[in-house]
Amino acid sequence: MEAFVVTEADHGGVHINSGIPNHAFHLVAMALGGHAWERAGRIWYDTLVDRRLNQDSDFVTFAALTHDNAERRYGAASREATAVREGWRRVGVSP
Question: Which of 43, 73, 74, 83 is the most exposed place for a label (fewest CB within 10 A)?
Fold first, then answer.
């Protein structure tokens, strides 16, 4: 988040700032190992189709929803939920 840019350009920085959640996904996928689409990808997909995700959701909301979806799919004490929480923490966002 230290590189987050507040701007009117790029539709509010949608592409400029996209590296933050992408990096969190990468960290989660690497922590879990295997094919990224098997666990991390399912969590992110569950979140992207989650009705609680609004078009004006911020990073904290998205992070919280990924964590919630990891817990729903794999359990609160799961390796997946821990990886999601840690991945977001490492990019400076607390779910």
Answer: 73
Q: In this structure, are residues 58 and 84 in contact, taking their beta carbons and an 8 Å threshold?
A: no
Task: Tell me the C-alpha distance between 67 and 77, whole Å.
Answer: 11
Mean pLDDT of 55-67: 95
Residues in CB range of 11: below 8 A, 6 or more apart: none
Instruction: Give helix then strand counts, H and E, for the chain.
Output: 5, 0
Q: Could you give the angle at the alpha carbon of 74 between the alpha carbons of 44 and 49, nearest 5°?
A: 30
pTM of the entire predicted model: 0.82
Mean pLDDT of 71-89: 97
